[in-house]
Automatic annotation (TrEMBL), chains A, B:
One of its GO terms (molecular function) is monooxygenase activity. NCBIfam families: FMN_nitrolo. Belongs to the NtaA/SnaA/DszA monooxygenase family. Residues 26-383 form the Luciferase-like domain. CDD domains: Nitrilotriacetate_monoxgenase. Pfam families: Bac_luciferase. This is FMN-dependent oxidoreductase (Nitrilotriacetate monooxygenase family). Coiled coil: none annotated. FMN binds at residues 57, 94, 144, 148, 218-219. It comes from the Bacteria.
């Protein structure tokens, strides 16, 4: 394999990423409540030597209860169950900085990292939308920039808690009765604008030191946050041109932050609609589009971009959308959708068809060769360090990707044939963070 | 088996409940960070057809970092891992109402209940102590009565969220595109003194409807809370007389609350120090007492009762303790310790020896016959519905209990030989709660 290694993450969502996946005969929609379904997905991705599996999350019902799969497992517990069914693959859970306490969240991810032997990752989200806030004692959500300010302080606290036990703090000398060296267990005494946390955490440092930090916001605030904190970035990019611009911009910000460009892996989403022939792939794409329930899709689109389009005639052009400065939701996704609608002059029906596959992530229909070509092109021309693979149907779409696309990527010397490392950080080629307290005492010495 | 069935819960704690367990040659103290150790404990308890395993928890470091095992897994994730290694046994996690949000906590336990196929239980604690509060943006903890008021409202919210999907809300009709009947998915619109939560939960109702509700506070506030909410109560009782008084009082309060006496199971803690002979059991008890590190034990005792006894001479009598009204910690445990010290006129060294086995829970050293006699006596004379078994050494003490005491209890027709039910509620002989929204619509009809 060449020095630079492709990274693949399997984004697991219900019975598939296409919004009508559950209506397609190749899925079993009751599986969304079955832990065995998700463990099976973890095993399939591991068979394909994927770096990781990933679960999105929210703290409210998404979409239209009548027509959507609105129920979901809590991700950290579900990944703990997947950890028991797998040996190597990384386990990335989404959790919000908006509505939980850093001490609780630090413990959950530390525990997942311990339980999985160093395979935990945290996809950091700030959570947009008033519906979420209304589940947490608030009438309305806080403003976009402030959400990111809170997130930054949240990360300060959580990473300090993860460092509060130095790696060699445990002594465990039964003879003397000394269990730990108390000089290596630190109060963090954080006092900030949003949080005051004394510490230490009641858990020893986890196998990875810090679980891998992942981020997916692509707004200005989001990119600045990623440049400071993220080690992997999931992003939605519709074209090679946009993807390259995003990749270049993000790496530049990372370097401007004093980090190496390599220290952050950029993974655009890809929805691979696979067929043995192009015609077969197109047929599957059409079948899925046919199954979209327009009323549900328009409601989901409205939530996605933070603009109410329900009631707008389906076969009229998408109306002019407000300026992004008026959007308090997911700003970058709003811009992506607006640009797509304007560029291609889409009607509302056409737009929901285009978004049905991956909510703004790029949909590529084709043969395994064509999908592999697409991946290779983006990987070798500065658009991606890897991909966030979003199979339209689960498990079938992931299994097909593993059985037909992954072998091509291996043959082209782009992707691993076996795991060589043990932790999620190993898979992504990222170092284990030095403990800030150990570092401080070494500097003093 | 007689109509009334004994219930056994295995309280799992590190490598044993005795505070010096980790120094004893029969334990491996490094196992406290090993998920396989806890999975093994789950399997041992399941071999003994225990109703459940249980994990305590706190949101701070307990005790003296130098001499204690201060690190621990987060319980819900650890029980999720144990769920994967077992099939029948119930899984009870402690979580605090003091420092988390009802929506997040409702999801975690719903998820554990889904993942385990209906085996989840929640041991509700309010969390005493300023050290905990200082990890959550506060200088000092709130006052005892207010903690329970918050807990009661927390339960109102969590149970409403668990009911927010009626049991038959899922339709999953691919043909029509209807996933759920939206008239059976309810906003809860809670607005109270401590919380405002809109709902619904983003999870369908879990196999048990509500995870089993467990509680362990034995103060006035604690008992009133238990009478309203608890379905199982863990309690520390030193004598048969005290245990009977507690049992009678609690059942009376439950009935006064309009619930049947049977609807709450009372399980005192028991620390069985087992030996093939009495002399062998006494020798083990002495070995463990010898291994106590006094400075650590006094610090733990001080935390347990909320009175600082560090610095008091070990071989002097325990000093007079303040009135319980001045205690803002675990009031009932304070009274238990005070009564024990006064009744037996103990020195501080003697007191820490007496508490070393089980932090105030009853220690019974003896042969399997003697332990079984003790259990039978308490069970048949109105002192207990079962026991919270706290093995002094783990796994050895639990394995000995399962292999030598459980067979006697089975032979005496007190305890099950196999699981007949599927869920934790089945094991405890407790009904699946009726959904409040279904009930309301039936009443209206």
């Amino acid at each position: 394999m060449s020095d630079r290694e492709l990274h693949l993450n399997a984004f697991l969502m219900g019975v598939g990423h296409h919004e009508a996946a559950w209506r397609h005969p190749r899925t079993d929609p009751r599986a969304v409540d079955d832990v065995a379904h998700f463990q099976n997905l973890g095993r399939i991705a591991e068979r394909g030597t994927f770096d990781s599996v990933f679960l999105a999350d929210g703290v409210q019902i998404w979409g239209d209860v009548r027509h959507s799969i609105a129920n979901r497992f809590e991700p950290v517990t579900l990944l703990t169950a997947i950890a028991q069914a797998t040996e190597h693959i990384g386990l990335i859970a989404t959790a919000s900085t908006g509505f939980s306490e850093p001490y609780n969240l630090a413990r959950l991810f530390s525990s997942l990292d311990h339980i999985s032997g160093g395979r935990a990752g945290w996809n950091i989200v700030t959570t947009a939308g008033d519906r979420s806030a209304q589940n947490f004692n608030k009438e309305a959500n806080t403003e976009h920039a402030e959400r990111y300010q809170r997130a930054a302080e949240f990360l300060d606290v959580v990473t300090a808690l993860w460092d509060s036990w130095e790696d060699d703090a445990l002594v465990v000398d039964g003879k003397s009765g000394v269990f730990a060296d108390e000089t290596k267990v630190h109060e963090i005494n954080h006092k900030g604008r949003f949080f005051a946390v004394r510490g230490p955490l009641n858990s020893v440092r986890s196998p990875q030191g810090h679980p891998l930090l992942v981020q997916a916001g692509s707004s200005e605030d989001g990119k600045e946050f990623a440049a400071t904190w993220a080690e992997a970035v999931f992003t939605a990019q519709q074209t090679h041109e946009e993807a390259t611009a995003f990749y270049t911009d993000l790496k530049r910000r990372v370097v401007a932050n004093g980090r190496s460009a390599d220290s952050v892996k950029v993974l655009p989403g890809i929805v691979p609609v696979l067929g043995g022939t192009e015609a077969e792939a197109d047929r599957l794409a059409d079948e899925l589009t046919e199954l979209i329930v327009p009323v549900r899709a328009v409601r989901q689109l409205s939530e996605l971009i933070g603009v109410d389009l329900t009631g707008h005639p389906l076969d009229e052009p998408v109306p002019a959308l407000p300026p992004v400065t008026r959007i308090n939701g997911a700003k970058s996704r709003f811009e992506l959708v607006r640009d797509l609608a304007e560029r291609e002059k889409l009607t509302l029906r056409q737009l929901i068809g285009r978004l049905g596959g991956g909510r703004g992530h790029q949909v590529v229909a084709g043969t395994p060769e064509q999908i592999a070509d697409h991946i290779e092109l983006w990987f070798t021309t500065g658009a991606a360090d890897g991909f966030n693979v979003m199979a339209p149907l689960l498990p079938s779409g992931l299994a097909e990707f593993v059985d037909h696309v992954v072998p091509l990527l291996r043959r082209r010397n782009l992707f691993r044939s076996e795991y060589t490392g043990r932790t999620l950080r190993d898979h992504y080629g990222l170092p284990r963070p030095v403990n800030r307290y150990t570092e401080a005492s070494l500097t003093r010495a």
